[in-house]
Amino acid sequence: MHWSYFVIVGILACLLIYTQSTMITTNEISQDTISNLSSHVDNLESNNVYLRDTIFNLTTTISNLTTIINTQQNIIEEQNMSINSTQEQLSLLQNGTFYSLHDPTYAEAQLFIHTDCTDSYTYKLGTFECDEFAEMFNNNAESLGIRCGFVIIEFGDAAHALNAFNTVDKGIIYIEPQNDEQLVHLNLGDSYWEDCFETNYGTQSFNNTITSINIIW
Ligand SMILES: [Ca+2]
Ligand SMILES: [Ca+2]
After folding, report:
1. What is the H or E stretch that residue 214 is in?
2. pTM score > 0.85 for this model?
3. Which structural domain range is residue 65 located in?
4. Which tens digit of pLDDT belongs to each residue from 125-159?
5. Alpha-carbon 15 to chain mean position
6. 171 C-alpha vs ligand 2 centroid, how far in Å?
7. Which domain-ending residue is among 98, 128, 159?
């Protein structure tokens, strides 16, 4: 054979070896790349779970903070209303439109009871009943600067109104404004007309056992 034939065969053999070598390298690179990408995907999925948890926690935190903000805003609004009301009352006090009230001494309360004429009015069913007596007595006292309580007691199926003073030296006293009589006591379970006065009003034909006592100052 001619020597050029061997040269050609040699060149072709070299090319074949080179090509196979290149394919193996490319194949190895591709597997590495897939492995890296797969690892990267795992990391991304892991990050994704973390981010989802973070978003969930932040959403919960935002919801809680929103609730707190709404609560605080409500408190601020209530306080603003209270401030406005107080400023209004202060303004009225400064203008002399309101008068300040004080709790009386026991003697001052007695003096008022005996000089006030509410008890001289006549009870009229439907138009001037116990609540009108108690309201008039309260308003007359407070027009003089004496703080007076409007007292409502319940008998279960009926109710009655009277008055109270929180005296500075002898505590709370209760007054029946229809006749100026001061009660000896006023307790739940008492029968109002039978137990609460020194005067004997006799046994009542209706249930007057006290089931609740409310003082509106
Ligand atoms: Ca009187
Ligand atoms: Ca009052």
Report:
1. strand 212-216
2. no
3. 1-98
4. 999 999 999 999 999 999 999 999 999 999 988 99
5. 89
6. 16
7. 98
How far, in Å, from the CA of 6 to the mean position of ligand 2? 129
- Number of structural domains (the chain) is 2
- Report how far ligand 2's centroid is from the alpha carbon of 138 (Å): 5
Residue 12, both tokens: 């072709």
Residue 93 and residue 162 share a domain? no
Between the CA of 128 and the centroid of ligand 2 the distance, in Å, is 19
- CA–centroid distance, 175 to ligand 2, in Å, is 13
**What tens digit of pLDDT does each residue of 12-47 get?**
776 777 666 666 666 677 888 888 889 999 999 999
Q: What is the spatial distance between Cα 78 and Cα 176, in angstroms, rounded to a whole number? A: 38
Asked if residue 91 lies in contact with residue 157, where contact means CB atoms within 8 angstroms, the answer is no
Residues 62 and 113 reside in one and the same domain: no
Helix (H, G, I), strand (E, B) or coil at 83: helix
Judge if 211 and 115 occupy the same domain: yes
pLDDT at 56: 94
Q: Quote the ligand 1 centre to 163 CA distance (angstroms).
A: 12
How far, in whole angstroms, is CA 102 from its chain's centroid? 30
Distance from C-alpha of 137 to C-alpha of 93, rounded to nearest angstrom: 23
Joined tokens for residue 75: 């408190």
* Same domain (yes/no): 126, 145: yes
Residue 174's nearest CA partner among 79, 80, 106 is: 106
